[in-house]
Input
Amino acid sequence: MPEERVKKILSFLEKTYPDAALILHYKNTLELLVATILAAQCTDERVNKVTGTLFKKYKTAKDYANAKQDVFEQEIRSTGFYKNKAKNIIACCNELVEKFDGKVPENMEYLVTLPGVGRKTASVLMGNAFGKPAMAVDTHVFRVSHRLELAKSNDPDKVEQELCKIIPQEKWTRSCLVLGTHGRRTCIARKPLCSVCVVEKLCNSPDKTCQSK
Ligand code: SF4
Output
């Protein structure tokens, strides 16, 4: 049964990665919001290097809203796509100041209206900062879900819906963390380490680098 298979996969992965957690460093919801926007098309490790300095200078939404775009661009330059990211973070924080009293709203519908905030970023916040079940489909979760046939769509938002249908709600946030950790450590993009993969026997992916069957 598909539910049994999903349960088995998640149970193996949970046992393998009990330390699965967000890699992004943050001390509050605003920091997680900024770090997650910066993490688009960038490694979390690089974002942590940048935010190590950035978070000392910018502490409130107002600080970001008042930032000078050209200065801010240079401060986040190494995360890539820095012009867009700078524009979005400044605009996003402007909206936080104007509409939400400088706070990050604890509401998925409001979050996705903020500049630079898509469903993945909003789900990261809902699941990890607000403790509400949320399925944050990043590049690793997306890849692993496809390889393990948990989802079929090429659209990450639809993959989110597919995963939400087959994983119990109370496990959404945790499942993303273990699937993502599997993607980073074992089911890596270019050459997955299938010979040491704990769900190898449950995987029919054409990307497999070994065949046990
Ligand atoms: S067997 Fe290989 S491709 Fe399949 S989930 Fe494991 S690491 Fe990924």
About this structure: The chain has one domain: 1-213. The chain has a mean pLDDT of 96. The pocket of iron/sulfur cluster is lined by residues 147-148, 186-187, 192-194, 197, 199-200, 203, 205, 207-208 (CB under 6 Å). Residues 82-100 form the longest helix (19 residues).
